[in-house]
Amino acid sequence: MTTHTRHAEQLSTTTLLRFATAGSVDDGKSTLVGRLLHDSKSVLTDQLEAVEHASRNRGQEAPDLALLTDGLRAEREQGITIDVAYRYFATPRRRFILADTPGHVQYTRNMVTGASTAELAVVLVDARNGVVEQTRRHAAVAALLRVPHVVLAVNKMDLVDYAEPVFAAIAEEFTAYAASLGVPEITAIPISALAGDNVVEPSAHMDWYGGPTVLEHLETVPVSHDLTACHARFPVQYVIRPQTAEHPDYRGYAGQIAAGAFRVGEAVTVLPSGRTSTIAGIDALGESVDIAWAPQSVTIRLADDIDISRGDLIAPAADAPAVTQDVEATVCHVADQPLSVGQRVLLKHTTRTVKAIVKDIPSRLTLDDLSQHPAPGQLVANDIGRVVVRTAEPLALDAYADSRRTGSFLLIDPADGTTLTAGMAGASFAAAAEPGAAAADDAEWDF
To answer: 332, CA 20 to 30 Å: which among 218, 290, 348, 386?
Structure first.
């Protein structure tokens, strides 16, 4: 058995699930996460003692498990989640990275951050309130970000006497809405995070429910982030040229494989130049290998001496993306300052950063009813809309629907480096891409 075969088997047996939680304010997200950590024995004794002490100081008899995740003082004082909190835990069956995202409307951008790399989103609903506007907003964000699996956790079932008709009505309404957005898989689970019903252990109060608990589902849901099955993409991060007596002619291109696999002898194209060559060698952890796959960090050597620098993309010659200077995308605006038509920005895509101009903002999405508000002129914090951006140099950009890694980008303020906008290239879930506006050259930015 070769080293590569053993490594491949290790990867296949150790699975990692990245998931995000979302829900309206006071729906119990932090309590659910705390219950998951507590009941799966993922909490250290001193952490639990600190939570019990803090709970007693607030006059609570039982430990407030929400305090396990709400780490900011302002979060604890207000009883809300403000920032994205990442938690790492594991069970014998799987490892988890959890992004606990805020519920407030003004923190929609934080949910975009947390869910952008998630394979599953848990959307919480208060059984007493049902599907509310914020629930629809979170379903829409999950659909926009192409999150493959969505769990609807109908919480606080203990406050509606564990009534099956209440759960069934909420599950039916949410499933119909999420399916209309193109969410591929929706699983509804009735829970009480406070009492622990159906979170880790099956509930004794809901014998009418025969499905999995939340943890069971998290442990068994198929993990679909097999980057080796995607279009192979290698953004160059660094050019290695030691020029020593031992390696006088060595020239390697270092970086992390974003998707797919590369083999020695394979014909490749370097973008945006379009020059072609063959992979002469691949170095991983100081050893020469015949094949490497995402997300390994490697150094690739080519047979030909080509001018390659940081930001270039190496792809199979038979499956190279088209290069373009006109980017049409769905974006979520994350900065407090607005994004306006005509604004000069930097566009960061993988390891490449280029100058760009916002040529058009064709529409802003109204998440309540998924209608498009035409020509808003600008996007403000937490807005989701369509933009057309003209870049100073060509970019090798995939459609986000094809690759979340190489179909995403950031717009950055060139003055101070602030991240303005998170972008997803290509069509949104709601409509096909609008026709791009004709872009004129701008002398000052050398277009």
So the answer is: 218
The string of pLDDT tens digits covering residues 234-249 is 999 999 998 777 777 8
Whole-number Å distance between alpha carbons of 165 and 170: 9
Euclidean distance between CA atoms 22 and 405, whole angstroms = 22
Please give the Cα distance from 201 to 177 (Å, whole number).
29
Q: How far apart are CA 107 and CA 80, in angstroms?
A: 11
pLDDT in tens, 337-394: 999 999 999 999 999 999 999 999 999 987 666 778 888 989 998 888 999 999 999 9
Residue 235 identity (one-letter amino acid): P
d(Cα 38, Cα 44) in Å, to the nearest integer? Answer: 9
Round to whole Å and give the CA distance between 400 and 382.
20
- Tens digit of pLDDT for each residue in 399-420? 998 888 899 999 999 999 999 9
Pick from 423, 412, 336, 411: which is nearest to 385 by CA?
Answer: 423
Nearest alpha-carbon partner for 409 in 389, 385, 434, 380: 389
Residue type, 89: F
Dist CA 38 CA 188 (whole Å): 22
The strand pairing partners of 45, in sequence order, are none
CA angle 23, 29, 31 (to 5 degrees): 160
By DSSP bridging, strand 120-126 and strand 149-155 are parallel
The C-alpha atoms of residue 132 and residue 81 are separated, in whole angstroms, by 18
The count of C-alpha atoms lying within 13 angstroms of the C-alpha of 215, restricted to the half-sphere facing its C-beta, is 27
pTM of this structure: 0.79
> For residue 382, is it left (φ>0), alpha (ψ between -120 and 50) or beta?
left
Tokens representing residue 399 in the block: 């459609």
Contact 124, 34 (CB under 8 A): no
Tokens 């030909």 sit at which residue? 304
Sign, CA dihedral 113-116-117-119, equals: positive
pLDDT in tens, 183-225: 889 999 999 988 889 999 999 999 999 999 999 999 999 876 5
| Amino acid found at 276 | T
367 Rama class: left (phi>0) / alpha (psi -120 to 50) / beta: alpha
Residue 124 CA to residue 27 CA, distance in Å, equals: 6
